[in-house]
């Protein structure tokens, strides 16, 4: 309408020739610039607001925002969220928005994915405040709009009359296995010693990987001799200690012993409840 009005006005004042062409071109350019400025203003208002969730590293407190419906997590530089921890697989997991919430998928990682300490089977729903562990790295999932639903209180129901002799339900069996629990912040995970020998060190080829600078690539070894567990140092630079004393040769482990591997401490449990 504005263009038509100005065009009619130009005809009324009888401007012709080159001057009329220049004025028409200038008016068209002004109109295009005005529309572009309006669109730019609208897009600038919404810029930076598309933050769907975030991961907060428990050790470093660094925050990584999620602004897409699906993100990959791993050690590979091609992942959306990259970790430098050697215990994290190259393509470890994927976090994705599914339906009315978020789901974490284990993409064939070596150490698995844990949600609030529980090892998941392929995938699991995650909610605001959940702790997700990838290897020795733990992050907190922050999504205030997706809180864990509150458990519905169970309503009291009238109990049917019990039979004369009611069999007692079978009690679940409690299982105990040897284990190591981390005592150092950032390395506070539990490793179950199911059987066999375990090499501890910084190398990704170790059974228990400890990505710390003072830890040698192949630092120490925990072996099972009959019903006993022993530890020996593998000629590491920083040495291996049990209860503050250097390990010389091979030393037997007792329940509650504190093992120090390059400054990283673990407690040995002869019987850990699982």
Strand content: 35-45%
The count of DSSP E runs of length 2 or more, i.e. the number of strands, is 22
- The H/E string reads HHEEEEEEEEEEEEEEEEEEEEEE
Separate helix tally: 2
Distance separating the two termini? 77 Å
Summarize the biggest pleated sheet: 6 strands, antiparallel
Task: List low-confidence stretches.
Answer: 44-49
What is the radius of gyration computed over CA atoms, rounded to a whole number of angstroms? 32 Å
Largest sheet, spatial ordering of strands? 2-1-11-10-7-8
Which range best describes the helical content: under 10%, 10-25%, 25-40%, 40-55%, 55-70% or over 70%? 10-25%
Oligomer: single chain
Kindly name the structural category.
Answer: alpha+beta
Mean pLDDT: 81
Please state the overall shape, judged from the principal axes of the Cα atoms: flat
How are the secondary structure elements laid out?
Layout: H1 2-12, H2 17-46, E1 53-57, E2 63-66, E3 70-74, E4 81-82, E5 93-98, E6 101-106, E7 113-115, E8 118-119, E9 123-126, E10 131-134, E11 137-142, E12 176-182, E13 190-192, E14 198-201, E15 208-209, E16 220-225, E17 228-233, E18 240-242, E19 245-246, E20 250-252, E21 258-261, E22 264-273
Helix pairs in contact: 1-2
């Amino acid at each position: 309408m504005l263009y038509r009005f100005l065009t009619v006005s130009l005809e009324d004042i009888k401007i012709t020739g080159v001057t009329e062409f220049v004025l028409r071109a200038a008016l068209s350019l002004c109109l295009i610039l005005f529309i572009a400025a309006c669109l730019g203003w609208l897009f600038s208002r919404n810029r930076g607001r598309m933050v769907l969730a975030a991961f907060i590293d428990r050790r470093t407190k660094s925050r990584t925002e999620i602004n897409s419906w699906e993100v990959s997590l791993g050690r590979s530089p091609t992942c959306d969220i990259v970790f430098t921890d050697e215990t994290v697989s190259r393509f470890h997991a994927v976090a994705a928005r599914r339906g009315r919430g978020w789901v974490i998928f284990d993409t064939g990682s070596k150490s698995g994915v844990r949600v609030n300490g529980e090892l998941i089977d392929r995938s699991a729903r995650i909610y605001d405040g959940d702790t997700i562990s990838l290897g020795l790295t733990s992050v907190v999932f922050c999504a205030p709009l997706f809180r864990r639903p509150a458990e519905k209180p169970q309503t009291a129901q009238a109990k049917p009359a019990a039979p004369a002799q009611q069999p007692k339900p079978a009690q679940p069996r409690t299982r105990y296995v040897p284990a190591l629990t981390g005592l150092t912040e950032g390395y506070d995970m539990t490793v179950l010693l199911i059987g066999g020998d375990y090499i501890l060190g910084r190398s990704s080829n170790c059974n228990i990987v400890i990505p710390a600078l003072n830890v040698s690539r192949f630092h120490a070894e925990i072996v099972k001799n009959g019903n006993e567990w022993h530890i020996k140092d593998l000629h590491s630079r920083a040495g291996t200690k049990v209860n503050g004393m250097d390990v010389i040769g091979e030393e037997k482990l007792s329940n509650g012993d504190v093992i120090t591997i390059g400054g990283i401490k673990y407690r040995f449990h002869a019987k850990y409840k699982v």
